[in-house]
Amino acid sequence: MTVRVVVAEDQSAVRAGLVLILGSAPDIEVVGEAADGERAVELARELRPDLVLMDVQMPRMDGVTATGIVVAEGLADVLVLTTFDLDAYVFGALRAGAAGFLLKNADARELIEAVRTVARGEGLIAPAVTRRLLAEFAASSRPARPERGAGTADPAKLGVLTPREREVLSALGLGLSNAEIAVRLDMAEATAKTHVSKVLGKLGLRSRVQAAVLAQELGV
Which of 157, 166, 181, 210 is deepest in the core (most CB within 10 A)? Predict the structure, then answer.
């Protein structure tokens, strides 16, 4: 299966590099390029790609706002490009429903694999980095009043989950992939994937990343 991608990055040289790298993979096709968030949303509506590779800092409309629109309208999964000095933007992207994130200094192999990973429904990219980010997110959000939405830390939410599903949610909070969840909970990978889908559905979440954020907020 070919993964159809829209690349949204305002720096033309960086965008060209991303397009070149992705185009070198036989199973990835770059179907559109955007230099700002508004154009990214327009292309997502027009082309219905499988994934939008989204920078966070862009003119006219930032990547966080664009991510929220793309996800809310069900146009595509979003993989956010970021650096650690932009954590506030990343947190917003997580809230908006981004399927994952990738550091801008990732090499070509990591970029291609990240796109493939998100296309498979594995939303957490670079687990070690993800765990650090989620931990920082949880620490920063505890003192403040939670925002409304999927990330609201309401313990009553967990009442709809079975004990096994709570274990899966806890594993998501650690940044584990389906394969890692399967090993941790001694189940088949397909079963782990099914449990993840059920957890997302019951909690009304748009992505496994949001589930990880919720798990961190609740301390599951």
Answer: 210
According to DSSP, the residues that pair with 30 across neighbouring strands are 5
User: Reduced to 3 states, what is the DSSP secondary structure of residue 153?
Assistant: coil
User: Among candidates 24, 1, 15, 82, which has minimal Cα distance to 43?
Assistant: 15
CA distance 22 to 5: 9
CA distances from 106 to 80, 121, 157 (A): 12, 20, 36
Predicted confidence at residue 87, as pLDDT, reads: 60
The pLDDT confidence band at residue 146, using thresholds 50, 70 and 90, is very low
State the Cα–Cα distance between residues 43 and 32, nearest whole angstrom: 7
Q: Which residues contact 127 (CB under 8 A, 6 or more apart)?
A: 175, 176, 177, 180
Mean pLDDT, all residues of the chain: 82
* pLDDT tens track for 31-52: 999 999 999 999 999 999 999 9
Q: Which two tokens stand for residue 214?
A: 């919720």
- Top pLDDT among 123 and 114 is at 114
Cα(134)–Cα(215) distance, integer angstroms: 9
